[in-house]
Specification:
Layout lengths: L35 H12 L4 E5 L4 E4 L1 H7 L11 H4 L1 H4 L5 H10 L3 E8 L8 E11 L5 E10 L1 H18 L4 H15 L4 E7 L3 E8 L6 H5 L5 E4 L5 H8 L3 E3 L12 H4 L3 E6 L7 E7 L7 H37 L11 E8 L10 E7 L5 E8 L4 H20 L3 H19 L6 E9 L4 E7 L5 E3 L9 E3 L16 E5 L5 E5 L11 H13 L6 H9 L10 E8 L5 E7 L5 H15 L4 H22 L3 E7 L3 E8 L22 H6 L2 E7 L2 E9 L4
Antiparallel strand pairs: 1-2, 1-5, 3-4, 4-5, 6-7, 6-11, 7-8, 9-10, 10-11, 12-21, 13-14, 14-15, 15-16, 16-19, 17-18, 17-20, 20-21, 22-23, 23-24, 24-26, 25-26
Helix pairs in contact: 6-7, 6-11, 7-11, 12-13, 16-17
């Protein structure tokens, strides 16, 4: 049977921190009359930094310390001296709440709550605790109350919840750059760390990237390719040591980065955890550091180990993806022409974007080449499929077409020969599902005309010069023919191709979308090309690929040929991968454009944009680059090509690619058009600035 708070005749000193409360008005009475054993427990409670509370008497009246007052939020100070059932009325009747406390008081059985939710500040999120309840006895051994000790585990609970979010974020990563961004962001915020780093092996060396607390990163920088730092294979850096040994290390207090510090941020680190990734494919490590000593509790070590395990799995997937993706891209691009013809009166540009997820080779192809007659042969085709076999067939068709055209350039004769080839390939493969479409044309500059033939391919588009009252762009009425391999007969059509005109060949991925009719896609392409600022082929390729809104699962290929009004002037510069390169490019560009008497306003904008693109190529591709400048009467075209393997820049990354800050938004602002083109060995970013009249 529980006792009452016993009274004794001899008064004692007042309880620290409780003298201001009117205890005499509560069922407990004045503290001077409490049992010495109860007073001793109360003294411990009130002097402890750990959140503790005494629930005394049959009503379980509350007495608690400052730590507990913080936990119950705005219930303090009104809760002091009141029955617990009143203070926590909204949860008192819930299982594991009031009944647990009353059971301890009635039966004297201690009780441990491992995941208790204590209603704190009514405006805040409920806190999570581990709470222990023990009976409190007076001098005679009777139970007079319950002692509650609370250890808040909200931070640990949140970390466990964020671990699930971390796993979800890592599941969406494709490259090691993506894994690094997600891992560094998670560890910095979830563990409230001062420094985090991520290291992976590169065979004979290590790559490491880090984040520092308080580092100013805007949204653009957050999505930039991380700035990796290379380290030798035998580096003593804790991340490299953990990755090599496969053993985690925890420095409680010291200077773990003193001998390998990159700057003062590393020098300030006193405690550091270094955990290997535990991957069979990728060797690497994750480190988390603090500027103060840290004991590294078992729970924290377990969370860090789980985080490193997740990062290791994601890094393994990313390494496999990058290998597979790079192979597919190399196969695809190796079957496309490495360089298009450079002719005085014809400007040629092409663009190819892989469909699906970019991780498979496709069957779209294009080509442009000089014929023995001096004319230009242009072709764009599509072999159905998104696999290595489709790419191989595409290579066969492209090579055969060029060989046939060099022998007899008539478009109908070329397609007739290809038809026999495709039928033969289908017979050899035992399939009648080899679906190939092609459009082939011969551009005769001297006669200002184009002769075209099509085998089941979408009709070409010609954008006429601005002279005349007709539409700026119109589809060529090419006689329809069946796809190759079906034994059909293709016919030709010859149309004018005057100076100022631009021919556009494209694959069906440009205009086809699942949710709309093909007619709508063709109309959208025609309208976009008509509304373009100029007839430059590179700009029109970019316009065409973005003409129809929405994503496509098919490959996208575009080839554009412009009949120039006047021959253009061009120059180029090789840019070495060294820090002084952007400055050298700026001086070269300024001198070249000034010599060509380009307007001063255009020179300033072009030099600034070129410097940005050169810096990007050196910083993010990590390779040498080449700058090409082409000047015509109406526009200045500048391109910067690299040979990196980190993938191409897309328009969705407009604000994310920069020399740490300004981004391609600067290019967007200063130029009239810009875009990116993948090449056989890298990617090219270009921009165009129109020359003011006069």
């Amino acid at each position: 049977m529980p006792g009452t708070v016993g009274r004794i005749p001899t008064p004692s000193a007042p309880i620290p921190g409780a003298t201001t409360h009117p205890w005499a008005g509560t069922p407990l009475g004045s503290p001077q009359g409490w049992d010495p054993a109860v007073r001793a427990v109360a003294d411990v409670v009130l002097s402890s930094p750990v959140p503790m509370a005494l629930l005394l008497g049959d009503d379980l009246v509350l007495l608690y310390n400052d730590g507990y007052a913080e936990l119950i939020g705005d219930r303090h100070p009104d809760a002091l001296g009141r029955p617990a059932a009143e203070v926590f009325a909204e949860v008192w009747r819930e299982a594991g709440a009031g009944d647990a406390l009353e059971r301890v008081y009635r039966r004297g059985e201690p009780f441990l709550e491992r995941e208790a939710v204590l209603p704190a500040d009514r405006q805040a999120e409920p806190a999570v605790f581990t709470r222990g309840h023990s009976p409190v006895r007076d001098s005679t051994g009777g139970i007079v109350g319950v002692l509650t000790v609370s250890a808040q585990t909200t931070q640990l609970t949140r970390q466990l919840q964020s671990l699930s979010d971390f796993a979800a974020a890592l599941s969406g990563t494709l490259t090691l750059d993506d894994v690094a961004r997600v891992a560094l962001r998670y560890c910095l915020h979830s563990f409230d760390a001062d420094r985090v780093s991520f290291a992976v092996d590169e065979g004979s060396a290590w790559r490491l990237v880090r984040r520092i607390r308080g580092e100013l990163l805007d949204e653009a920088d957050e999505r930039l390719p991380p700035l990796w730092r290379r380290m030798p294979a035998d580096s003593p850096l804790p991340a490299a040591v953990a990755a090599r040994s496969g053993v985690a290390s925890f420095t409680v207090d010291g200077q773990p980065l003193r001998d390998v510090a990159a700057d003062r941020h590393d020098e300030k680190i006193r405690s550091l955890a270094a955990l290997p990734l535990r991957s069979t494919v990728v060797r690497g490590a994750l480190t988390v550091g603090y500027q103060a000593p840290r004991p590294w509790s078992p729970a924290e070590r377990a969370l860090l180990a789980a985080s490193a395990e997740l990062v290791g799995q994601a890094a393994e997937r990313a390494r496999r993806f990058e290998t597979q993706h790079g192979t597919a891209q190399l196969l695809q691009r190796s079957m496309l022409p490495e360089q298009l013809p450079d002719l005085p009166r014809l400007r040629i540009a092409a663009r190819y974007d892989p469909g699906v997820d970019g991780n498979a080779a496709g069957g779209d192809f294009y080509d442009a080449f000089l014929l023995p007659t001096g004319a230009l042969g242009v072709v764009l085709g599509d072999v159905a499929g998104h696999d290595v076999q489709a790419a191989a067939r595409m290579g066969q068709v492209r090579a055969a077409l060029r060989a046939l055209a060099l022998s007899d350039p008539r478009p109908d004769a070329v397609l007739a020969g290809l038809d026999r080839l495709v039928a033969s390939l289908g017979t050899e493969g035992g399939t009648h599902e080899l679906f190939v479409t092609v459009v082939f044309g011969v551009v005769d500059v001297d006669r200002a005309r184009i002769t075209l033939a099509s085998a089941g391919h979408p009709a070409p588009l010609i954008r006429r010069g601005r002279s005349g009252d007709g539409p700026a762009a119109a589809f060529v009425d090419v006689p329809p023919g069946p796809p190759l391999g079906l034994g059909g007969r293709q016919r030709t059509v010859t149309v004018p191709f005057r100076p100022g005109d631009t021919l556009l060949l494209y694959s069906d991925g440009v205009v086809e979308r699942r949710w709309q009719d093909l007619t709508a896609g063709l109309a959208g392409l025609g309208a976009a090309v008509s509304a373009a600022n100029g007839s430059d082929p590179r700009a029109l390729c970019a316009v065409a690929t973005a003409a129809v809104p929405g994503a496509t699962e098919d490959d996208v290929a575009v080839l554009a040929v412009e009949h120039a009004v006047r021959p253009s002037r061009s120059a180029g510069m090789e840019v070495p991968a060294e820090p002084t390169a952007p400055s050298r490019v700026r001086h070269w560009m300024t001198a070249q454009l000034t010599e060509w008497q380009v307007p001063e306003a255009v020179v300033g904008a072009a030099v600034l944009c070129t410097s940005e693109l050169t810096t990007n190529a050196l910083l993010h591709a990590g390779t040498a680059a080449r700058v090409e400048v082409d000047l015509s009467a109406e526009r200045l075209l500048v391109s910067v090509a690299d040979s990196g393997t980190r993938g191409q820049v897309t328009r969705a990354q407009t604000d994310t690619l920069s020399s740490r800050g300004r981004g391609l938004g600067l290019i967007e602002e200063l130029s009239d058009a810009w875009g990116t083109d993948p090449t056989v060995r890298g990617s090219t970013v270009w921009f165009e600035i129109l020359i003011p009249a006069g």
